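Hey team,

Filing this mostly as a record. A colleague (T.K.) asked me to run one chain through the structure pipeline before their review meeting, and I want the input and output archived in the tracker in case anyone asks later how it was produced. No errors, nothing strange. Just documentation.

Input sequence:
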Amino acid sequence: MYTLKVMSGSIADLDWDGESKKISICGDGGASFHVKVLTYDTGNQVSECIGLTKKATTVAYRQQRPFRVVAGGEDMKCVLYAGPPFKRECEAASHSNYVNCVRYSPDGDLCVSVGSDKKVVLYDGKTLEVKGEFCDVHKGSIYACAWSSDGSKLVTCSADKTVKLLEMPSGKVLSTCTIGDKLGSFVVGVAMSLGDIPIAVTLSGIIHVLDAGCTAVTSTIEGHQDAIMSHAVASNGDLYTSSSDGTVCCWKEGGRSCKRVSGGVDADVNGAVHSGKVSTVSSNSLFVQLSVRSTLCSFNSLFVQLSVRSTLCSFNSLFRKNRAPSFMSLPPFVHAASPLVTSAPFVHTKLT
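Output structure:
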């Protein structure tokens, strides 16, 4: 293993050749090239591709001979490179906004690009001749696309929080799956897994597995997006973890499934229950507690509680401020050692 800096800025995308010997990369090349091709084993640059003067956001490598590389980006155009060594051959300015993703079909005959102008553009894979333009496929920017294994379908994802399945080369929309209604439901990435199962990634960091027809989400894969600060095991065997991103996760079945705990500030993007770092989490037989700067919250559907600063936090849709609470004592619980947790008494409220 070796590390090689090939861009002065961030790398936005990469793609392998059909022989697994070369890699095309793109990104922010600064004053240099924004698209490059290099060998995987030595890191030697095979080509430095001109044609894009602004940051390149996407690149695709044709898997069949004659090899081609297509790249697009903030120049609002796609550039075709022939090689190796790869030289600029032609370009297509079919987009009126950023080009977010370009992908070759499995047989290499076609290439497709999607962009922030809500447009899908179909090209000849060898010449970049435009074969079709499909406008307003989505109601928002289209961030990514992926081909089915036989090249007959294309899946796209968008800021309109949907994933769509298109027939190719006609561009007809076959089905639509709406992921959610929050800001975190922006679908920023999509891929086709084995069996042509669409997999989508949202802004929240949650991976959504869809059915083959792209009509519904069949399962989700969740977790933290930042460092895990603490953990606690509940009496039923569930594992709760807290993170510096403000989220709390519940792990079941020995860690094989995970769900983010809801409540608290309930951030639109990642579902964080706290606006800051969660430093400590502990549990007892009834509920899970977590602590941030001496503030505690409960995630049991039956309880709300008062923090050490007497701030009332409710995670139950039935709770109303004018309801008369009844008080009850709870079994003692122990927090993991933390200088942020005080020994002040806690008052819990049971919803009636």
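Quick notes for T.K.: The radius of gyration is 25 Å. Residues 29 and 148 are 32 Å apart (CA to CA).
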